[in-house]
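Exam revision sheet. Question 4 asks you to relate a sequence to its structure. Input first:
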Amino acid sequence: MTYKVGDRVRFKNLGKFKRRPLFPPPAVGAPHSYEGELGTVVHIPDAERIAVRPDGKEHAHGAMAGWVFRPDELEIVE
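Answer key, structure tokens:
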């Protein structure tokens, strides 16, 4: 499955994503746990990394900052 920026996605197993790093990495002292299970793809740096931002959240690192997932950990929400 091919993902693109703007796709709405759901995580298949939220439990193992609580400490997934951000892309780019978070500032020291910034929140770094993912909240919720739905989000939007905001950046795709390469084939194995997809940056996703949780719904309703802004991020200090700008428009392309989000939590990083592998393609097999996501599913597109229609």
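Marking note for examiners. The mean pLDDT is 76.
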